């Protein structure tokens, strides 16, 4: 399902030439176009490719990724990095030990609203950040069969929250439901605490008839609301007008201020992701001197592994009914 979009964007992105496509199940969406559809990763490697995108089911990420690493091929693997932390660690070590670019397709980082938000937070527009809250809800996707909603959708919010805050998760607490008759969870309500003190909350499910993708960052100067479905970013400022209403004035909080819907450029996130991957490969080859802005680089496999660790901690928290702490060094 994602492979067809990768194929389209690779054809449109300067610096790439799509030369081969492999899928053991064929090409129902016609993504290969005039190219032959190969049957395995070994056939793909035999084409002499320089880079690859691995958009196979999560359970096959390790097998395909390790084959590509053994062949010395820089790879962008779809999120999550692997089906388990152990498999993810093997991928990290395989790519890092060979000096290869290994990236994970956490595409939400490249959403224009979140790119703009990340830059504004870095510039201090909110002052100190207190909380990051996300809501990611919608109908069940038939494309997902091998993982639950935490590893499929929740990993988006885990990654983007840590990235926006520039901090790792210290602890998580989660509750899940299994309402759709499958072995994996289909709804989660989770809270977390980051190492820098920011608290997080995440509502993620496959059980809602409405589709929602919202990130709210609250800080000492106000709050940003990013809608990643529309790529809109809105700033809610704390008010500065004093009130004459004594009962309200005695409450030591904030008041409503200006609300600004910010005008931002809106490039396609998948294209920005591929441009970052291209630039990382060129930099690894010594063919690119100017590094990308810090918030536009690739999501490394080690970062993808850390996100998977948090996801598995959420699953364990829900299963065992307790708060799970994450090792600071993991």
TrEMBL record:
Keywords: NAD. Gene3D superfamilies: Dihydrodipicolinate Reductase, domain 2 (3.30.360.10), NAD(P)-binding Rossmann-like Domain (3.40.50.720). It comes from the Bacteria. Residues 2-106 form the Gfo/Idh/MocA-like oxidoreductase N-terminal domain. InterPro entries: Gfo/Idh/MocA-like_OxRdtase_N, Gfo/Idh/MocA_Oxidoreductases, GFO_IDH_MocA-like_dom, NAD(P)-bd_dom_sf. Pfam families: GFO_IDH_MocA, GFO_IDH_MocA_C3. Residues 115-224 form the GFO/IDH/MocA-like oxidoreductase domain. One of its GO terms (molecular function) is nucleotide binding. PANTHER family: BILIVERDIN REDUCTASE A (PTHR43377). This is Gfo/Idh/MocA family oxidoreductase.
